[in-house]
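The methods section describes the discrete structure representation at length, but only in general terms. An entry of this sort, consisting of the sequence and the corresponding backbone structure tokens, reads as follows.
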Amino acid sequence: MRFPPGTPDLEVLGLLVSVAELGSLGAAARRHGISQPAVGMRIGALEKRLRLRLVDRGPTGSTLTDAGHAVVELARPVLAAGRTLMDGVADLQRELDPGLRVVASKTIGDHRIPHWLSALRKLRPELAVALDVANSEQVTDAVRDRTAALGFVEGPHAPAGLGNRVVVTDELAVVVAPGHPWATRPRAVTLREVAGTPLLWREKGSGTRDTVWSALAIHGTPVRPAAELGSAAAILATARSGTAPAVVSRLIVAHELRAGTLREVRLADGVVLARKFRAIWHRRTPPAGPAADLVELAVRIEEARIRRGSRAG
């Protein structure tokens, strides 16, 4: 079948539908993980291709024209058919490929999943596992798109529309360089003070960032970051330099605290910052076989680790 010249691709139709649903180019950009100018350029190219004005752009947001609304309604069944096609292809791939594709957030991928996969290999030595590491938002997208059978994410809330199981609760620590005023301050630091202090933040889409933002936003909108960094290693190195405080997983910072290169800040009122590590999956394909084994092993390993830590304490 040959399509008429100028037929738009599914991705740009999806962008237009997101603009209709969310009311702005910026919100559509965040949903699709691209920049707002990129959304504007792609919608503009679609308008030229269709020779229709689809969006009225204003200072308070973007609204669809009558033609835009008509195109969105025509696009919805096309996008639904595209999703059905890709779901069917994913089912075929799983039937033909005996391996397991997993995607994990950076903290989990660097510090926990190697232990889980090692246990899975002992249970299923014949299984080929492909592991990708990304931030929690990208992991969620991969599971929704069914490019991964199983994901592991970190954050305060379960991703909407996906099945999930909590594997373990991970504590976060506020840390500073030994020379920072908070390192030797006798009085505990309040979350309001933390919210009002420029911090070292992970990039947008990170589960750690979402957790910290949710905890601090209760006490006022967090101020502009001192820096936004794409990895925990970069945050630790920058915190050691004394640039600013950071909020990081205890799994990541434990060695630094033991060595004294970073100091943990005591929070007022015994506040504990924590987030959940979750296994997530597409609701149409709940974990079975190797995927179910991996989730169960992860839960058991983390429960055993916590028990050992309690006995040691």
